[in-house]
């Protein structure tokens, strides 16, 4: 769940933006339920890239039990299910029932018998203590207004010597400042707040809950949008739609300007965009 439309730094807006996580869980559910049908189906995907990066880099052994928090459509769950094998188990949870429906379809498509998904709130996990060897969460911690509450629950269900792994936004592509400025011009009342938690904050929280060997790497992944129409559909296919829905200016005029500005910058292959992500891991 990082995105090009993280507009938290547009603090010159005449209307104050509020991160969707601070509105209500119902708002978060509504945004992702609406995005679910096209999530990871339109344009290039960084979710799949970093999902596989997280699962493959945290040392999941055959037979392990893995929890994927805010699983979305299964970008982490699928590679994790491949790694745990027939003797292991992967469970994905998400607050959005429509996302869970998409993830269940992915499980069926790959024929996994070692994976399951359910609608659940990560701040009140429906699992006993020490249920999992690994707890993973990719591009979703910004959706929790209380990071400590989330980490506390993750720690509770994690076994001794288990590992936690988090992927989250860690910077914006400065070549896309024009889009940030265009969003600002049309005065959104909501933001995603994808950079609300810095690596320093995340590491300090993990240390507070007793995790050791906490370490972070910041990595980049390039997306290329072939044309403005692809980018437009992509922007509506995930959490960014919460920002776009909140624009108080004329939506048709915004789209017209967006296509115009995109066209000025695109070359023969399209328009590249760098996604920067922090990968933080720790041992219990």
Report what the structure shows.
The chain is 38% helix and 23% strand. It is an alpha/beta fold and 284 residues long. The protein has one domain (18-283): 3-Layer(aba) Sandwich (Rossmann fold), CATH 3.40.50. Helix 3 (46-57) runs parallel beside helix 4 and helix 7 (177-185) packs antiparallel against helix 11 (251-265). The longest helix has 15 residues, at 251-265. The radius of gyration is 19 Å and the shape is globular. The protein starts with 17 loop residues before the first strand and ends with a strand.
Compose a concise summary of this entry.
The chain has 284 residues and is α/β, with parallel strands linked by helices.
Looking at this protein, list some descriptive labels:
Rossmann fold; alpha/beta; 9 strands; disordered N terminus; globular; 38% helix
Largest sheet: 7 strands, mixed
Q: CATH class, please?
A: Alpha Beta
How many distinct folded domains?
A: 1
Binned, the helix content reads: 25-40%
Annotated CATH topology? Rossmann fold
Stretches where pLDDT falls below 50 for ≥5 residues?
A: 1-15
Examine the secondary-structure arrangement and name the CATH architecture.
Answer: 3-Layer(aba) Sandwich
CA-CA gap between termini: 25 Å
Mean pLDDT over the residues: 92
Strand content: 15-25%
The class by helix and strand makeup works out as alpha/beta
Strand order of the largest sheet: 4-3-2-5-6-9-8
Q: C-alpha Rg, in Å?
A: 19 Å
* Number of DSSP-assigned strands: 9
């Amino acid at each position: 769940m990082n995105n090009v439309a993280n507009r938290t730094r547009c603090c010159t807006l005449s209307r104050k933006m509020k991160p969707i996580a601070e509105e209500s869980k119902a708002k978060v559910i509504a945004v992702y339920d609406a995005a679910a049908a096209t999530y990871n189906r339109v344009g290039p995907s960084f979710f799949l890239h970093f999902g596989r990066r997280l699962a493959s880099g945290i040392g999941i052994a055959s037979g392990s039990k893995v929890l994927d928090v805010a699983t979305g459509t299964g970008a982490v769950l699928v590679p994790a299910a491949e790694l745990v094998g027939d003797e292991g188990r992967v469970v994905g949870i998400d607050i959005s029932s429509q996302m869970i429906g998409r993830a269940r379809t992915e499980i069926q498509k790959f024929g996994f018998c070692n994976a399951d998904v359910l609608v659940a709130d990560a701040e009140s996990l429906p699992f006993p203590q020490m249920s999992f060897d690994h707890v993973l969460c990719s591009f979703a911690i910004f959706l929790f207004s209380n990071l400590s509450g989330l980490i506390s629950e993750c720690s509770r269900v994690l076994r001794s010597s288990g590992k936690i792994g988090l992927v989250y936004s860690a910077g914006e592509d400065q070549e896309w400042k024009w889009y940030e400025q265009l969003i600002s011009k049309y005065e959104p009342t909501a933001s995603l707040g994808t950079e609300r938690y810095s690596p320093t904050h995340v590491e300090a929280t993990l240390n507070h809950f007793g995790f050791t060997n906490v370490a972070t790497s910041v990595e980049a992944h390039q997306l290329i949008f072939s044309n403005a129409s692809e980018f437009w559909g992509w922007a509506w296919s995930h959490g960014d739609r919460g920002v776009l829905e909140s624009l108080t200016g004329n939506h048709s005029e915004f789209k017209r300007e967006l296509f115009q500005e995109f066209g000025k910058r695109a070359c023969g292959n399209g328009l590249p965009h760098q996604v920067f992500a922090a990968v933080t891991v720790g041992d219990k």
